[in-house]
Write a structure and sequence with these properties.
This protein has one domain. The chain contains five helices and no strands. It has helices at about 1-20, 25-35, 40-70, 80-105, 115-140. It is elongated and about 55 Å long. This is DUF2269 family protein.
C-alpha cells in the first residue's frame, strides 16, 4: 500500500506544479499582447488558452489525487485544512471557469478597451495564482485552524 500511496503523492505534487507553474507564463504573454500587432494577437491568445486548458486539466488530476490521499491517508475529511482547501478549490474552479473565459471572449468584441481587458486578464491571473498558493500552503502546512 505504501508504494501506491507514494505514487499518488508524487502525482499530486506534479499536478500541483503543472496547475500553478504555467500561470506565471501568462504574465509575460499579457505584457507582450499589449504591444502586439493584430496578426500576432491570435497567436498570443492561443497560447493563453492552451495554458489555461493545461492548468484546468492539471487541476482535475490534483483534485482526484487529493481525494485519494485523504481517503487512504491519515487525515480525516473534517480537518480544518481539508475543509478550507475544498472551499478555496471550489472558488478557484468557478473563478477559472468564469474569469478567464469571459475576459478572453471579450477581447475581439468591438468597442472594448483593449488595455482594460488586458489589465483584467492580468488581475485574474494574479488572483488565481493567489488562490492556488493559499491551497498549496494549506496542503503543505496542514494547519489546525479549529
Amino acid at each position: 500500500m505504501s508504494l501506491y500511496y507514494g505514487a499518488v503523492v508524487f502525482a499530486h505534487v506534479v499536478s500541483a506544479v503543472i496547475a500553478v507553474g504555467p500561470l506565471f507564463l501568462l504574465l509575460p504573454l499579457i505584457r507582450r499582447l499589449r504591444t502586439a500587432k493584430a496578426e500576432a494577437e491570435d497567436i498570443y491568445l492561443a497560447f493563453i488558452r492552451v495554458i489555461i486548458r493545461l492548468v484546468m486539466h492539471a487541476g482535475h488530476v490534483l483534485v482526484v489525487t487529493g481525494a485519494l490521499l485523504i481517503l487512504f491517508g491519515p487525515w480525516p475529511w473534517h480537518s480544518s485544512w481539508v475543509i478550507l482547501t475544498l472551499v478555496i478549490m471550489l472558488l478557484s474552479a468557478v473563478f477559472l471557469a468564469t474569469g478567464f473565459s469571459s475576459v478572453l471572449k471579450r477581447f475581439h468584441e468591438s468597442g472594448m478597451d483593449r488595455h482594460m481587458i488586458l489589465n483584467k486578464l492580468r488581475r485574474t491571473a494574479w488572483i488565481y495564482i493567489g488562490l492556488l498558493m493559499i491551497m498549496l500552503w494549506l496542503m503543505v502546512q496542514k494547519p489546525s485552524i479549529w
